[in-house]
Every structure is written in C-alpha cells, then in structure tokens.
Design brief:
This protein has 280 residues and is mainly alpha-helical. 74% of the residues lie in helices and 2% in strands. The protein is built from 13 helices and two strands; from the N terminus they run αββαααααααααααα. The protein has a two-stranded antiparallel sheet. A hairpin with a 2-residue loop joins strand 1 and strand 2. Helix 1 packs across helix 13, helix 3 runs antiparallel to helix 10 and helix 7 packs antiparallel against helix 10. The two termini are 42 Å apart.
Length: 280
C-alpha cells in the first residue's frame, strides 16, 4: 500500500468515528421526530404533528423561550464574573499566572454531581450563603430565596460553567502581543484607554467563545434544574428528559431536541461569525 493510500485510509478511519457516534445518532433523532406514538408503540408514520404540538402549545413554547432567557442570563453573568478573573490572572507574571489559572479551572476536574450537591448545600436554609447573610444582619432568618426556584438554577449554572468562560478569555488575552500594550503606553494612552481600545477588542473572540460554551451547556442541562430548581425551575431540558423517560414519547422528545439543536447551531454560527470579525 502506497503512502498516499495509507493517508486516505487513516483519514477514513478517523472520519468514521464522528460519523458513527455523532452524525448518525443526530440523524436518527431527526428521523424519529417525524414519527408518532400510539399505544406505547412508535409508529413510522412521517408527519409534522410533533412540531405542531410543540409550536402550538404555549406551555412548551413558553418553557423554551424561558430557557433561552435563562441561558442568556447565565452567559451575561458568566462573562461579567469570568472576564475580570481572566484579566487578573493574565496580568500576573511567572508561575503565579499559571497557578492561578489552574486554580480557576480546577472545578472542571470535579464530578458534576458533587458540584451540584455542594452548591445545593451552600444555597439551602442552613447553607453558607444564608448563614453569612443572617450573620451580617441582611436577613432576619434563613430564607428559601436561593433554592428550589429559577434563581437557584441561574446561580448554580453560572458557578458551574464559569471555568468554561474563564479559560477561553484567558487564552485570548494571552495571544495579545505585549508590544501593543507598550506602544499604547508610549503614545500616552492610560490604562483604561489601552483596555478599551486594545485589550477588549482583541479579547472578544475568546469572550464570545466562552459565552457560547456557557450558552450551549446551559441550553441542554436538565440535571441542574432538577436538583436545585424545584417546581418553578423548569427548563426545556427537563421537558425533553420527561418525554424520553416518563412519557415514553420519543418522537415528541426528538422533535424538541431538533428545535434545540437548530437554535444551538444558529447561536454558534452567529457567535463564530462575530468572533471571526474580531480575530486576533
């Protein structure tokens, strides 16, 4: 076998993996979304009834729009908290910088369920947050304000997905040539003007990438709303989970998943286009 043929064979083997484990399952979901369930049996009767049931029912559509709004809040909060952290780490020098970066992304090495239970305990009636607010006199007694509601889902998602935002922002800042900062200072620009005119625009690709990470992860999350959301923390992820698990209506769950996938791809495409316009 020639070297050219070996390269093509290696390419075919590598390309087969995403096709088998990603594209084919997605195609299966898309096909199943046109079927229907009758008497607990999935019937291959292609139609658009599942999509009509989704868009024609405000309960499902409202939950979907509410989830999008929740994801947008997660993105905004994650960037608002993650950008200063990434900037602070980037401004450090030597081994301190990478030690702080490792500390910031350390939660990525922890179990997702462990992080959920930890945050659930912190937000509970006897949790650290309530005790701190009662201790400083902000609250008269422990409050359920921070748990089993949409607010708890927002706080938990923001904390959990924060490392996914910090890392790409830091990497984007790391790629900014130090000479640009020195040149800006030599030309008389202050720290704020340098940040506004150089650092912020050149770090936008990483900021957008981090925001996309947080948005897409939050969009499909159903474990977090179930663990800390209670009855008022319902999201479209929980709806999809219920259709596949409790209701055994796989075609309808597949249809909602297809809508979710289309929206995620649209957001990723828009974010990629915006990032390409500000590439470092």
């Amino acid at each position: 076998m020639t070297g050219h043929a070996k390269r093509w064979l290696l390419f075919a083997v590598v390309a087969a993996l995403p096709v088998l484990f990603i594209l084919l399952p997605i195609a299966s979901f898309l096909i199943t979304s046109f079927f229907r369930v009758e008497g607990g049996v999935i019937l291959a009767d292609p139609n658009l009834s599942n999509y009509g049931a989704f868009f024609g029912n405000w309960t499902y559509l409202g939950t979907f729009l509410g989830t999008l709004w929740l994801c947008l809040q997660v993105v905004l909060l994650s960037i608002a908290l993650g950008y200063p952290v990434a900037w602070f780490i980037w401004r450090r020098s030597g081994t301190v910088r990478y030690a702080l970066l490792l500390l910031a992304v350390m939660p990525l090495f922890m179990s997702y369920i462990v992080k959920l239970y930890t945050l659930r305990a912190m937000l509970g009636l006897n949790g650290l947050l309530n005790q701190m607010l009662v201790g400083i006199g902000f609250l008269d007694g422990p409050s359920q304000f921070f748990l089993f509601n949409q607010r708890a889902v927002l706080i938990t998602m923001t904390v959990i997905y924060l490392p996914f935002v910090i890392l790409p922002i830091f990497l984007s800042l790391e790629r900014i040539p130090r000479g640009l900062l020195s040149a800006s200072a030599d030309l008389g620009a202050g720290a704020f003007d340098t940040f506004r005119r150089i650092v912020l625009p050149l770090s936008l690709p990483g900021t957008i990438a981090g925001g996309l990470f947080a948005f897409v992860l939050a969009l499909g999350d159903f474990v977090t709303p179930q663990m800390v959301g209670g009855t008022t923390g319902f999201t479209i992820g929980r709806v999809i989970w219920s259709q596949f698990g409790l209701a055994y209506n796989w075609p309808f769950g597949s249809a909602i998943s297809a809508v979710l996938l289309a929206v995620a791809l649209l957001i990723i495409g828009l974010g990629g286009y915006a990032a390409s316009r500000r590439r470092v």
